[in-house]
Amino acid sequence: MAKPYGTxxxxxxxxxxxxxxPLVALDRIWPGPGRILAKCEFMNPGASIKxxxxxxxIQRALNSGKLKPNGPIVEVTSGNQGCGLxxxxxxxxxxxxxxxxxxxxxxxxxxxxxLGAKVVLAPQVEGKPGYVTxxxxxxxxxxxxKLVADTxxxxxxxxxxxxxxxxxxEHMGPEIWxxxxxxxxxxxxxxxxxxxxVGVSRYLKKQNKDIKCVVVEPExxxxxxxxxxxxxxxxxxxxGYGKVxxxxxxxxxxxxxxxxDAEAIxxxxxxxxxxxxYMGYTSGANVAAAVRLLKSGKVPKDAWIVxxxxxxxxxxxxxx
Length: 320
Ligand SMILES: Cc1ncc(COP(=O)(O)O)c(C=O)c1O
Fold this sequence. Notes:
Blueprint: E1 23-25, E2 35-40, H1 50-64, E3 73-77, H2 80-92, E4 96-101, H3 106-114, E5 118-122, H4 134-151, E6 154-155, H5 163-179, E7 186-190, H6 195-207, E8 212-218, E9 255-259, H7 261-275, H8 281-296, E10 304-309
Parallel strand pairs: 2-10, 3-4, 3-6, 4-5, 7-8, 7-10, 8-9
Antiparallel strand pairs: 1-2
Helix pairs in contact: 1-2, 1-5, 2-3, 5-6, 7-8
Keywords: Amino-acid biosynthesis, Cysteine biosynthesis, Pyridoxal phosphate, Transferase
Family: Belongs to the cysteine synthase/cystathionine beta-synthase family.
Cofactor: pyridoxal 5'-phosphate
C-alpha cells in the first residue's frame, strides 16, 4: 500500500537548529567593487554566534564524562554564551546557573531566565550600563567561581576551553568555505573569547593560506594590535575586553582594524536601514571594518570579505 504521507523534514530539537546559518550579501551597504558577505548568526535559536560554542563545549564535556547527564552547569557570560547554554541546557535537561555583569543588557538576562536558567548579576565596579569593562567581567567571574566551589557544578569556562574554538573550526569554517565556493579573500571578526576568530581562521587558512584573517578591535582597547588600553569602555559588548584572550593564537591573524563606537553604531544603523537586518553592535563593528578595508586599499579592490552578524538588535535596550 502506498504511504499516505510524503517524506518529512523535521528537526529533532532546537539543538539541530544551531549552525548552518545563511550567508547574505551586503550589496546595498557595499555595492562593489568587491563584496561583503555576512553569516547570519542571529538566526541561531539563542539569537547569537555563541550557540555554536555552547553546543560544542557541552557535547564534548558529556562525551568525556566531565559533565554528567542532567548534571548542574555554571558559566560566566556577557549574555550570549548564557543564552546559547540555556538553549542547550533546556533541551538536555541540565540545571544552569549564569553569572553576568549587571552592565550587560537586561534583554539577555530576560532571555536566559525565560529559557530556564538562574541568572546572578554582579554589580559593576568600573563601567556603566551598556559599557562593560574587564574589571566588571572579573567581578562576574569571581561570583561564578564561588558558585562552582560551593556547588561542585561543571564550569564551562569559555575563555579557557579549547572546545570553544573547535566547534567553530569544525562547523562555521567549513560552512563559509562551502557557501562561498572557496571564493573568500578576507575574514573579518571581533574577538571576545577568540573562539570564533581562531576556529574559523584556522580552518580557512588550512584551505588557502593566502586568505587574510583580520581582527576587529574597539578603538582605545586594541591589545591584540599591541597598543595600551586608553578607553576600556565601549559599545562592543561581548568583545574587546582589553586583554589578549587566553585562547587567541597570533598565527591565525594577519592584522587588526580599530573601530570607534560611532562607526559601529553607524553601520549597525545602516544594516537595519539598507539591508533590513536589525543587529547588535559587534555586527556593526564587523561591517564597518570590512568597509574600511575595501576603502583603504589594504585588501584587493575586488576582494570578497566574509564577516559575521553576531547577534540580534533585540538583545539590546531599544534606544541604546
Ligand atoms: C555580540 C558578540 N559579538 C562577538 C562575540 C565574540 O565571540 P567569541 O567569544 O567567539 O570571540 C561575542 C561573544 O560573547 C558576542 O557576544
